Amino acid sequence: MTPRKVGPAAALFLLLVGVGCDSGPSGPGALTGRVTGQPLGAVVLEVTGVGIQGFDGRGSSQAYSAAVAGRVDTYRVVLVDAVGGDITFDIRVDDVRMEPPTVVVIAAARPDNVSQPVATLAVIVER
Fold first, then answer.
1. What is the pLDDT tens value at each position of the chain, 127 positions in all?
2. DSSP string, 79-123
3. Of the candidates 81, 92, 119, 120, which lies 20 to 30 Å from 22 by C-alpha distance?
4. Cα–Cα distance between 89 and 63 in angstroms, integer?
């Protein structure tokens, strides 16, 4: 039995499959979070996860955070955006391949400072 040569198309396919299976490099970096729903002016989040280093606002958003006393790896995060709309933020982590943190909306307000029901909001965290 003689060995078969792999054609260029098959080699390219194998290369693309191998690259497609890689979820990117590991190490320090940021996960991107977005609070969506009704137009938002501010939101209070509770974020729980291992390896969290801090939080940053994105675009016109500003982020303020503190560790929750007595609760390991849990943070309260206040995000403010004077423009209104979805609020986008970064979660700085030890390893971008880690399991994404759990994020719960505690309170929210519209740009006119009227309270917003949290049940109408969703939080998306992406690598």
1. 555 554 554 444 444 444 455 556 889 999 999 999 989 999 999 999 999 999 999 999 999 999 999 999 999 999 999 899 999 999 999 999 999 999 999 999 999 999 999 999 999 999 8
2. EEESS-S-EEEEEEES-TTSPPPEEEEEEEE-TTS-B--GGG-EE
3. 92
4. 7
